[in-house]
Design a protein that fits this description.
TIM Barrel; 8-stranded parallel barrel; 3-stranded antiparallel sheet; globular; binds guanosine-5'-monophosphate
């Protein structure tokens, strides 16, 4: 039995050291990035934050709103071809949408019909998503996808270790999707014991992916997927080397999110459930197959209103992180940041008084 003895880190294990800065105002911070890719010949410019391809997050309404900020929405895979066609009639921002699919034959058949309808030009990203990206079968499907869509920006995952991030990038992914067991609606760690602390996964996988380059092309990239519970986690992911950050629960619960609005004791909640939760499987496949444990849970989270308010707060927080570190551009986050290991994140001393914000 081999035990890896160095401690792996989560977002809440570190803080970012402030540094001398010549910035005058948060307004001076540029959160947009421009990427070239290893496989696709496209160039992308925007704020590299992606709404997760969950049916409670990756909705058409979310895409319409986030595209205003040049952010990306990974549409969930349960929209049918007619719905997709209808949406793209008056939505023309390919840089802001990812089409999502799994590795089943029907997923690929649906993609083929979407392409046959001429809709392939309407989205620049494609997200090939399976909970376990370690299966050889998945790498095979990724190669098939790359052949089918040679010039799309392909995101594929999920994995958490350097050698598999490399494997995905070498087999056709422009962006390896990183994160297993860290999502807020995920129970994989409880169910299976499998996982990897997210910040270390990001640091190790980005290092591996960035090392793969081709002449006059970009390098392999990664997206940190899941586990962000505050804007500071998003900042830490970028500091750790993430090129993109994917958000589930932070974007859930808003007007533009999916999931039902529930009223209980005069308070409003919205549903947020994992895509392999019993709830999602029953909803989309009619029942939960017996051989599958449900590795996700179903939550009701307090209703949060318009997502624009949250996005402004998130971007404001990232700009503030940048000014504390002296980073003029998002690109500089990973170069400027020094993490410090901490035993305590927050001063919670007043919590015992049951205080309320006013
Ligand atoms: P969050 O931002 O809420 O922490 O995490 C969102 C991510 O959790 C998603 O992008 C996806 O990778 C992951 N996820 C979503 N549903 C499930 C699920 O049912 N089980 C597991 N293991 N992960 C999930």
């Amino acid at each position: 039995m081999r035990i890896e003895k160095d401690v792996k880190l989560d977002f809440e294990d570190v803080l970012i050291r402030p540094k001398r800065s010549t910035l005058k105002s948060r307004k001076d911070v540029d959160l947009e990035r421009t990427f070239k890719f290893l496989h696709s010949s496209k160039t992308w410019t925007g704020i590299p934050i992606i709404a997760a391809n969950m049916d409670t997050v990756g909705t058409f309404e979310m895409a319409r709103t986030l595209s205003e900020y040049k952010m990306v929405t990974a549409l969930h895979k349960f929209y049918n071809v007619d719905e997709i066609k209808e949406f793209f009639k008056d939505f023309n921002k390919p840089d802001s949408v990812a089409y999502s699919l799994g590795v089943r034959d029907e997923d690929f058949d649906k993609l083929r019909s979407v392409l046959a309808e001429g809709l392939g030009e309407k989205f620049n990203f494609i997200c090939l998503d399976v909970p376990n990206g370690y299966l050889e079968y998945v790498t095979g499907k990724l190669r098939e996808l790359r052949e089918l869509c040679p010039d799309h920006i392909i995101i594929a995952g999920n994995v958490v270790t350097n050698e598999m991030a490399e494997e995905l990038v070498l087999n056709g992914a422009d962006i390896a999707k990183i994160g297993i067991g860290n999502g807020s609606a995920c129970t994989t760690r409880l169910q299976t014991g499998i996982g990897y602390p997210q910040l270390s996964a990001v640091i190790e996988c980005s290092d591996a992916a960035h090392g793969i380059t081709k002449h006059e092309k970009g390098c392999g990239l990664i997206v940190s997927d899941g586990g962000a519970v505050h804007p500071s986690c998003v900042a830490k992911a970028f500091c750790g080397g993430a090129d993109f950050v994917m958000l589930g629960s932070l974007l859930a619960g808003h007007d533009q999110s999916g999931g039902e609005l529930i009223e209980r004791d005069g308070k409003k909640f919205k549903e947020y459930y994992g895509m392999s939760s019993g709830k999602a499987q029953e909803k989309h496949y009619g029942e939960k197959p017996n051989y599958r444990a449900s590795e996700g849970r179903s939550l009701s989270i307090p209703y949060k209103g318009d997502v624009n308010v949250f996005v402004e707060e998130l971007l404001g927080s990232l700009r503030s992180t940048a000014t504390y570190m002296g980073a003029r551009r998002l690109k500089e986050f990973s170069k400027r940041a020094t993490f410090i290991l901490v035993n305590r994140q927050l001063n919670k001393s007043l919590e015992r008084y049951n205080t309320e914000n006013f």
